[in-house]
Fold:
Amino acid sequence: MHYYRQPIILFGIVVPILLAAVVVGLGSFLKSKMTASFDHKQRNYTTYEQGRVGALEIESQVARERQHLDRWNVQLSEETASAVATNLREISEGLPGKEIQQTAFERPNGNSGFGSVSAQNSSQIRIAFRGTFRTLQRAFLALETRMPQLQLQELRIDPNSTQSSLLNFQVTYTAWEN
Structure:
């Protein structure tokens, strides 16, 4: 009877306990891998949902601003010098004629200033005025409001030698184009 005690202990107790420990360990390992995978996938889904909701919000904002984008594209595709001249004419009609007078309008050849260091297409416009400070300030405000693609590059103000109430303005704009 003592002959079978060792194989019974080995195959009846030790091996089943080792197999059970291996199965429990393997199950625990697989459970931790599945939990980690589930957490990772859940984080990815949360990130995806936030991105999707953010994209939908941006799309709705873009849809609301589409009319402005189309207007801006049309405005940027116009010939800049003629658009500035037209806008200045319209603005000058609404201001007192004695207080504003355009003395020069030129479009220098070549890119210089801001446009020369940018890959964006641009042109320069140099305009000279004679008038009162307040009236010209209103004119520039109206022009820059109507044409947001204009960027002030240089502004020179000098006193007028003939009339003390008038000033000579020389303005250089960089006009960004499509």
The mean pLDDT is 87. The CA atoms of residues 5 and 124 lie 104 Å apart. Strands lie at 100-106, 122-131, 150-159, 167-176. The chain is about 55% helix and 20% strand.
